[in-house]
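Comment thread on ticket #2218

A.B. wrote:
> Attaching the input chain for the structure job we discussed in standup.
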Amino acid sequence: MNRSRFILRTATILVSAVQILTAAQTPAAAAPVVAFRGPEVVKLEWNTRALQIADLNGDGLADLAVANNDRSAIEILYQLKPGAPIEAAPRSLGVNRWEPVLEDARFRKTSVTTGVTVFDFVVGDLNGDGLADLAYTGEPQALTIRYQQKDGTWLEKKISEAPEPIQFVGSLRLADVNGDKRMDLVILGQKEIAVFEQEKNGQLAVPERYALPDDNCYGLEVTDVNGDGRLDFVYLRNNTRDGLRVRLQTAAREFGPELAYAMKPSRCTLQVLAAAKGKTPATFAFAQDATGQLEVFDLAQAPSTDSGLVLRPRVFSPRSGGKNPACYALGDFNGDKRIDVAVGDPDGAQVYLYLRQPDGGFTGAQRYPVSADVRSLAAADWDGDGQDELFVGSPKEQSVGVAKFANGRLAYPQPLPITGKPLGLAAGEIAADGRVLLAVIREEKNKRYAEVWARKDAGAEMLKSVELTGLKTDPRAVRLVDANQDGRLDLAVFTPLDAMRLLVQGDALEFTDLSTKPGFRKGLVDNLESSALTLGDLDGDGKNEIVASVSSFARAMRINEQGELAVIDQFNARDSNAEVACTLILPQAGAKRPVVVLYDRKGEQFQILRANDQGLYEIADSTPTGKIDVITAETRAVPGGGTEAFVFGKDRFWWLPLGQADYAATTQSTHATDLPEISYSDVIAGDFNGDGKPEIVCVDPGKNLLEILGRGKDDRWESLMHFKIFEVDQHYQGRKGSPMEPRETLIADVTGDGKKDLILLVHDRVLIYPQE
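C.D. wrote:
> Ran it. Output below, let me know if you need it in another format.
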């Protein structure tokens, strides 16, 4: 409603509006003037949130909707047609002083009872009938859909498959995620992202779930990050140096592993200024937490160079919780000549299978049932058909089973005739003639054995058994290593509170426990966990050394000709306070010596060491990584050239495809206001003047002020206007609401004139500033 000037007095605030708010424009500026009138005022309740704009009744006019937790309802504000009478606002029942009715906006109010405390709320067509529906998260019901009926009523449907929601606005999004022209629902929950795709019949499918590696994520945005035409997920995480999180959608319409990028801490969620298009990167804006300045950055592809390694982990988190650590195996399970990843979930009696794709990536996790309490996995081509089988060890069920991938799924493991409690499995070409054998560490009647088994018909037969004496407790793992580099695989056995046992293979599958020999030097591997042992070729002779990570350094070792454990080299971290959890040996094309990478668990970083001219390894660089509780790590050559590394952890694993292009968040511009004592806490983007370039509304809710920025000369951000929303009445003693106002801002065309308007949620009001 166009009026020259008014003063709105509520119980706590004095709101003033100017007749016209006009953007200053220099003669050289090409963009039209931006001017507002108003505001128009809608009286609501104090505890409102998640303001939405949409045509809810299909009359072609923009309506408003907002969650009202004071009334446990969704308030719907239907816009009246021009000339229709404005309904009088109801008088408040809780007024303790005179309060004039100053509501003058163009809306008719109605409400939909929720019966819950709403956290977030969205509006859109969720069943394909052409009518706008409501979806909201809350407590106690996690997710509710209210389907609009033709008579204007709202049918309630509670969604039981929803994840536990977070309590912030910006966790619920509607988007055509899979490109089928139907709106899908995406929820960023406390421990996972859930995608409810809308099916052809208008029903929401069972959600696809993507576990979050870390808590405290918020601010979900759905946009194209890499310019491939598919929508991706972008969100933030609090209290971390790599707070920007991205999940790219694959060609199979699944969302891949989480990628973490460094950005300055933010006071608000991200604003998407532009989605990626082709080689033009996606652009985002936010308010810096430390300075209150506006920052604009893009997420552009940054290819790796010869001078450095790209060591950004792709983080896979197959499960959102679990008391017991996962176990892992690498193998070609579907026979396509590509290595897949199997993850054992002991709490869920299941295995997650990540199958390799032709582009080198992985599918989403496929779940298959296995034995309860699975604690160890191994993979090898047991039957010689060119396809690896999966071995599954369950101490609780005292069984070792073998499973084969056939007919599009992993079959349930079939038991092998192995008695007792399996404590660890390893499989490979253990025999000197290249036969694939299975190594088993087991306990039976308080005795522990290391055994080697071979396939026989449909079952298995034991070829060798060695009793492990003198142990105080059960071993936890067995690994295959060629400790003396004679071409035959040996068994490394890991037991808590004991030195690593090394069973070296001789002729006819005879194993000698070198750890009992005088020259073994147990102190080098005392209390060594399986997670701290990796393998790598340091001298380029094609034979792997044993690399043990201990405290703030790692040592490369092998068994020498005298049968002694000898140290070949040592790699020290940058400082003695580091906690090296595992070490990766990465060969480099054209280099005589590989790169050594130490994972510092305490510093949550990779420390990169390179050999100098004298062959001494020195720190060359470091890169932040995030955290992982390491179980084991492995480096392997990729067919066709290249190297990849895996770091497997208790609740997640990292994939490091070396040499592949990466992305980087690069600051493009910043802006600090010249207004005294003003700093931004929120930014909202929208194209007010229709020139195709977004303006940005910057909010200082502590000072109740807005400043609108636009691009000026040299593409710099310039202030177009600023104004204070209200003045505080210092004498009022009643309800004051949030000290940070306005708490929500929208930019949308309310009036239907083709120009974007400014909508604010302030205290118990919606203020609408129509654009001139």
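A.B. wrote:
> Thanks. Noting for the ticket: Residues 1-20, 23-30, 91-102 have pLDDT under 50 and may be disordered.
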